[in-house]
Amino acid sequence: MPTSPLRRALRGVTWLFLALAVPAAARAQIRTADPAVRGVPLSAFPRLVKLSKHVYGYEEIRQPGFTTVSLIVIGKDGVLIADAQGSAAATQTMLDRIRTLTPLPIKWYVVGSDHGDHTAGNHVLPAGITWVVHPTSLAQLKRDSAAATAARPVVVPPTAMTGTTQTIDLGTTEVVVRFLGRAHTGGDLMVHLPREQILFMSEAFLNRVFPAMRSAYPSEWARAIDAALALERVKRFVPGHGFIEKAKRSREELVAFRDAITAVIAEATRLRAAGLPFDAAVKQAQWGPYATWFLVDQQAPIAIRRVWQELAGELR
Fold first, then answer.
1. Fewer Cβ close by (within 10 Å): the C or N end of the chain?
2. In what order do the strands lie in the sheet with 66-74?
3. Between these two residues, 27 and 37, which has the higher pLDDT value?
């Protein structure tokens, strides 16, 4: 039955009163990479997050339960993807979702990260696409391909980019692929859309995930993030893992992640200066506010060892 204007007005006042009665801290969305804590059911994934008229983020759940993020840019005659997913099935599902947005073919693919959780499904991508990959990542993919199996092949792009930027005109918008320095890997690429003021950072930005440093360059990683924060015409920073945030919060979370990296470096440096053996250092590490970040138990020991390698001059 239709409601009267008076009843609708009273309902609006009631909801406003109830909202104001809840403390602001309780109303605020919890900052976490854990979908359960954030209040997002796993049934919501995979999902497309519209970033602008022609640009989408794609969030898929990977083990042990947080998101892997890809970028989709729809051009005049074709589609650009930055990073795929960690299996053929997951990547094919993403391609199927892209078909619900546009019938245009996939024409460009940017290797933001050469790690398997972003590349293991690349063999289901269409043939003939243009690859954009950093020389260091191309070398890594060649090594991975040599050890691959027929069941899990590794696609090796034909050539690598030259220089630190590559611009692609999609007709609908301009894409600038940037290398801002070694970070999570030796060849991290970021995708900058100046018109939309978006920067997809791949695994150089892990939103509320404890810094994963298996193949990282810790101090250089912090500097690469500073370079990203200093870019002009960027308001929204999109991570390679963790949730896609609105513009203002995305910058706040990127700063928080940079601070987490510097805190990890400082703590690992303190532990090394104390002369502790590795196992004792892992047990005595104090992570402060980062002790609740996703994957801390798994990634903290790896981070300590990597920082120690950097301090010893072992990272080339």
1. N
2. 47-52, 55-62, 66-74, 79-82, 106-110, 130-132
3. 37
